[in-house]
Amino acid sequence: MDASSGADPRDVGDADTPARAQATNVVGSSSLGSHQSGPPQRSPSSSSINKAAHRQSFAENLRNMPPSPRHRHPSLTQAAVQDLMNHPPSGSKHTNPRFAGRDWRDIAIGELTSPDDIRWIDMDSSVEEATIALLKSKTNVVLIREDASSTTAISTFDYSDLNAYLLVVVGLSRPDGEQLQLFNRIMSTAQQGGRIALREIQPICRQDPIVNVVSTSNLAHAIEILGSGIHRVLVTGASGSVVGVLSQLHMVDFFWNEGVNFPTIDRLYPVLLRDLAIGTHKIISVNSDAPLSDALILMNDEGLTSIAVVDNGQNVVGNISSKDVRHLTTTSSAPLLNDSCMHFISVILNERGVEKGQDTLPVFYVNPYSTLAHTVAKLVATRSHRMWVVESASPSPSAPATPLMGPQTHVSGAPPSNQAPPSPVPTVAVPASAMAGARISGKLSGVVSLTDILNMFAKFSGLHPSDPGEQRARRRRSSSSSVRPSLESSRASIDVRR
């Protein structure tokens, strides 16, 4: 249940042993492709089966991967979550000798990035292999190259692309006449357990441009791009080879931890969101009782990476992001598509709290009287890409709402300017009114994204980022017409130099 733009706010740890599995056990299996309902089945443990006769499933391969050596967020009680919301962790108050006395606008992009952030996959690799690589990526994206000898990215694969692929496999996409043959071929191959290469699914992937920036460019250049709504830039060396990835979250994290070195940025943190007039009041949300498939389709059609889940009183009770589709890559997870969004959220919380020891309650909202520091601290602490803005809670039914309400656009007022297989699915869905979020959140009234924050930082520093609305509109157009006329070239690549 993430609030990420490209994906889950929490990082997925690395695993050094690649998992090789049959395509029948990935998203493209026949059981998931037919979109049938029925109780999910627990996979047998490796100790209770004849390994010589048993072919491991995609889920089992992931389960047997070495545990992540990376840091995990500790489990939080409800009281601890409430305390985090009221008193989020403060940024660093000590000057960093690397940046002290420097104008942040002159810092080189290469000082913030590392080759360790890059995960490669070849264009003719399978979707299954790309998904495994994505689960192990620190930056929630896999760079696609023509072959193993290349160091140039010709496309990318992220959780939004995985969502688009999933919707085709299960027959939930709406292809037009031109797309029908392609969609049917992918769906048929997946249902028969055939191998599907990344090259074959490129037409259904979102058409985000690849933006290349040389490592010697400064952060002023980077923030103008990221503050305009581009989620990430690829950092290249003098030879043109990719040497790092700089994302919006990475940039906001830098400003939060190093803001004490930069007075122009640091003085904004105590200001209230209301006074900054940041974010937007037009939000697309989905009702908690709507099927999960509705949320996934809506995110794909609108080019969104996350969506708010609300009850009938428009109170925020959860959040679903494109990265959550990683819970749907096994055949046993197929019934979740027909279950409610609230049920899906309860599955994710059950996994985090019981199996993985992560946060047992979500922290994904602020209010107009939250300071920018409070908002950024929560974004950084939860690795989120959005915070939903809420007002005081509205009356809401004590039981699940009926009749079901589908996806909707909620407008309030005028705009101010690891990797582990899913847990066993609970047998009883949790009603929205029973979730903690219904008691401690409030009525959805807006959203603040990383794009909004970086755009504001840029403008207050005298820079001129483009209007993020243009990029958002372009992303929606790209998602609504996912098939390109030809495959003679991959996604547009923009090489920005200064």
UniProtKB/TrEMBL annotation:
A GO CC annotation given for this chain: cytoplasm
Matches recorded under SMART domains: CBS
Stretch list, region Disordered: 1-55, 393-426, 461-498
Principal location: cytoplasm
Keywords, ordered alphabetically: CBS domain, Cytoplasm, Repeat
PANTHER family hit by this protein: AMP-ACTIVATED PROTEIN KINASE, GAMMA REGULATORY SUBUNIT, CBS DOMAIN-CONTAINING PROTEIN
Protein name: Protein SDS23
Native species: Purpureocillium takamizusanense
Designated gene of the protein: SDS23
